[in-house]
UniProtKB/TrEMBL annotation:
GO terms for molecular function: ATP binding; kinase activity. Pfam families: PfkB. Belongs to the carbohydrate kinase PfkB family. The keyword Ribonucleoprotein does not apply. Residues 3-308 form the Carbohydrate kinase PfkB domain. This is Carbohydrate kinase. The lineage of its organism: Bacteria, Bacillati, Bacillota, Clostridia, Lachnospirales. It comes from Defluviitalea raffinosedens. The keyword Nucleotide-binding applies. Keywords: ATP-binding, Kinase, Nucleotide-binding, Transferase.
Length: 322
């Protein structure tokens, strides 16, 4: 049995690592991919997790599988492909220190997962199914994602969705919006940033935009991550805001994934369906999620920065409730 199974991209993020002795740029090979980050958090919090996706049958692909094996995320849903290479992304820092990405994904293995390659048994044996929109940028992974979603709904899983909009990976913004909205039709839990919320709804007001999504797409729980401003949620006509923890952030990579992994952990632990959760319970859950996200920003990288459950509880205890 699994608690959470996720489908999506697993790739290498080459992050800047200074200069060599002969002044050449150095890059550090880091695992990347939002769905796998979410699973890694849940796995570190002792939940049973499994990943479904495609990797190239190359050094990078086998390195990534090893990373998930090491953190106890089941890799039985990974398909290795001889014909395509593992997706790579290089991160560059511009003159202001902002991150710029170059993706090597033309195609990349993650886009090439086929419907018939999905391990449906894993989905059938899980409580939650999680996905993003990167697996919907191109065929055949788009159809594979939709097949997995339909199956998850048929089997009554709770479906969690983090669109994670990456403009460079879409042919056009119109196509991105259309596909991201298609995903909304399946979501029970939606996690978006403020920018994504405005992109999807065209509404520049968080309350109105989340109300529009809950009414238009019948999404039971929507949460908006606000970086160092904390987080917001809407459950039907109820809403709430949870203030952030003050930390010295050095790298925000994976904070959103950590936030969502922590939220799914809390929902699973509660043993309740979303409808049954009181507003005060949801506020406590978001507080725990804010703490997990904040702790992740205090260390470099996504997976290496994930705290243990004890570290999150200690942090909340020392910082106090907000
Ligand atoms: P991504 O798009 O990279 O997946 P995101 O935009 O969804 O991430 P963030 O809003 O950056 O995610 O972070 C998620 C949560 O982590 C926030 O809602 C907040 O609770 C916490 N967090 C992030 N950055 C900070 C920060 N600088 N200080 C305190 N808390 C932070």
């Amino acid at each position: 049995m699994y608690d959470v199974v996720a489908l999506g991209e697993l790739l290498i993020d080459f992050t800047p690592a200074g200069l060599s002795s002969n002044q050449c740029f150095l890059f550090e090979q880091n695992p990347g991919g939002a769905p796998a980050n979410v699973l890694s958090v849940l796995s570190k919090f002792n939940k049973a997790t499994g990943f479904i996706g495609k990797l190239g049958n190359d050094q990078f692909g086998h390195f990534l599988k090893g990373v998930l094996d090491d953190i106890n995320v089941s890799t039985e849903g990974i398909v290795f492909d001889d014909e395509v290479r593992t997706t790579l992304a290089f991160v560059h820092l511009d003159e202001n220190g902002d991150r710029k990405f170059s993706f090597y994904r033309n195609p990349g293995a993650d886009m090439m997962l086929k419907e018939e390659e999905i391990n449906l048994e894993m989905i059938k044996n899980s409580k939650v199914f999680h996905f993003g929109s990167l697996s919907m940028t191109h065929e055949p992974a788009r159809s594979a994602t939709l097949k997995a979603l339909k199956y998850a709904k048929e089997k009554d899983l709770l479906v969690s969705y983090d669109p994670n909009y990456r403009p460079l990976l879409w042919k056009s913004i119109e196509e991105a919006k259309q596909q991201i909205k298609e995903g909304l039709r399946y979501a029970d839990i939606l996690k978006v940033s403020e920018e994504e919320l405005e992109l999807i709804t065209g509404i520049d007001d968080m309350k109105k935009a989340t109300e529009f999504l809950y009414k238009g797409y019948d999404i039971p729980f929507i949460t908006v991550t606000l970086g160092d401003k904390g987080s917001y949620f809407r459950k039907a006509d109820d809403e709430g805001y949870v203030s952030p923890y003050k930390v010295k952030a050095i790298d925000t990579t994976g904070a959103g994934d950590g936030f969502l992994g922590a939220l799914l952990y809390q929902i699973l632990e509660s043993g309740k369906v979303i409808k049954e959760l009181e507003i005060s319970e949801l506020e406590n859950m978001l507080r725990f999620s804010n703490a997990t996200g904040a702790l992740i920003t205090m260390k470099r990288g996504a997976i290496p920065a994930i705290p243990t459950l004890e570290e999150v509880y200690d942090f909340i205890k020392t910082q106090g409730n907000h």
